[in-house]
Amino acid sequence: MTIWTLGSINIDHVYRLPHLPQPGETLAALDYSTGLGGKGANQSVAAARAGARVRLIGAIGPDGGQVLARLVALGVDCAAVARMQTATGHAIILLDAASENAIVIHPGANRAIAPQAAVAALDAAVPGDTLLLQNETSAQAETAEAAAIRGLRVVYSAAPFELAAVRAVLPHVTTLALNAVEAGQLTAALGCELSDLPVAEVLVTHGAEGADWHDLGAGRVIYQPAFAVSPVDTTGAGDTFAGYFAAARDQGFGPAAALRLAAGAAALKVTRAGAAEAIPARAEVEAFLEQRA
């Protein structure tokens, strides 16, 4: 099958600092680098590195040729990525000595995706395919609705958390993916429990504490602990988890096996600097998991 990703494509600007700055504080960076990023790009690369066939629906500006070439080199089909005059999205990523981060995003072309173009890209999709999306683009609700009508599994990472965006997409979602903070924000805003959400599945990640998969229909929960590693850069760890999990389910894995594969991929990712280009390949993840059996 195919995983269709409606997702952001960013040029990442990464600054390593002795600590994250306080309000009004000016710091000199210890190091600076640029690379491919954006939640959509990260998730697309993760799914492709997991062995899935991935087709990305997105947009770049005149300055995005290099990041687009990197996506293609990493196995992502970018035929549905639009070229616009609006600048490519970019992110300012601050990393401290403990590898914690603070991120500022300029959406750029990611927020200029026309709903009709995104929906039209799904004309080649077939029932059983997957749509993987998040909150860094325009056209999420329209594309999710079109995917659900076409019989696709809709996996939605509700990040960055925006209540209005979640409300619009939620009726069309199969699997809702959140981190623990986002899950708390959503249930508080809706005044409900996690088990009351109108979706079939909820995936909640807890960082170094692992992840939970909830089958809301059956009332079943599967917990996957995180693998202990020495982190270098946590940027993109959640996206790696989401992309690998979606790919594993697309390949017929049960939730427990998909969780373990995704946890292994996320663990390896945080041992490497960078975002999309630091996501490990499937063979590396399987070798890591064999060592941790």
UniProtKB/TrEMBL annotation:
Q: In its UniProt record, which GO terms are filed under biological process?
A: D-ribose catabolic process
Q: What is its EC number?
A: 2.7.1.15
Q: Does the keyword Transferase apply?
A: yes
Q: Where does K(+) bind?
A: 233, 235, 269, 272, 274
Q: Which residues bind ATP?
A: 179, 205-210, 238-239
Q: In which pathway does it act?
A: Carbohydrate metabolism; D-ribose degradation; D-ribose 5-phosphate from beta-D-ribopyranose: step 2/2
User: Which stretches make up the Carbohydrate kinase PfkB domain?
Assistant: 5-281
Question: In what way is its activity controlled?
Answer: Activated by a monovalent cation that binds near, but not in, the active site. The most likely occupant of the site in vivo is potassium. Ion binding induces a conformational change that may alter substrate affinity.
- Cofactor(s) recorded in Swiss-Prot or TrEMBL: Mg(2+)
User: What's the encoding gene here?
Assistant: rbsK
State the protein's name. Answer: Ribokinase
